[in-house]
């Protein structure tokens, strides 16, 4: 743990000191976990994450530095923006998993586009239902069951990602490739769920 260069107190976060209020320059290499004073992990408690984000955001809120030297005000603004970005990255499990996979040397979305093989067979069935729903102007009795099935499948994929990333695998581990494939599947599911929501809305507007 680092100490504050102004008062020597231990720092909870590198962005500022909660004891004396000093704002610090943060290395560009600082990770979202470091900015929020957390150890890298896929499994995070949302309440604790939000508590830390709110607490540290107060320490660097630009409104508290309006009368300060321009350099310190700009530093507070920059640290505030980095805290917000760190929270957005870690708050969503999919973004958190994506960051961890890349950070640990796993493939990016562009480098690994495959999905789990059993999942591809399900996709063919789901796509058929969605295609028929797009072409139909009237109600489709299969849409709601499909929405429920995709929602349940999404929960299963998230559980599989957690199993692959908790505890964190070694750098360049095969588990990171498998996690990326599960993330690719999750993105398909999210797109399909959004499309069903759009179909629901369009049909509701036509009533």
Give the helix/strand layout.
Elements: H1 32-35, H2 46-59, H3 70-91, H4 93-103, H5 117-135, H6 143-165, H7 174-206
Written account of the structure:
The protein has helices at 32-35, 46-59, 70-91, 93-103, 117-135, 143-165, 174-206. 61% of the residues lie in helices and 0% in strands. With 207 residues, it is mainly α. The mean pLDDT is 93. The protein has seven helices and no strands. It folds into two domains: 1-91, DnaJ domain (Helix Hairpins), CATH 1.10.287; 103-206.
Bulk shape: elongated
Specify the number of helices: 7
Helix-and-strand structural type: mainly alpha
Question: What is the string of helix and strand elements?
Answer: HHHHHHH
- How many beta-strand runs? 0
Number of domains: 2
User: What's the rounded overall pLDDT mean?
Assistant: 93
Helix content: 55-70%
Proportion of residues in β-strands = under 5%
- How many angstroms separate the termini? 61 Å
Keywords, please?
207 residues, elongated, single chain, Helix Hairpins, 7 helices, 2 domains, mainly alpha
Put the structure in a nutshell.
The chain has seven helices and no strands. It has helices spanning 32-35, 46-59, 70-91, 93-103, 117-135, 143-165, 174-206. The chain folds into two domains: 1-91, Orthogonal Bundle (Helix Hairpins); 103-206.
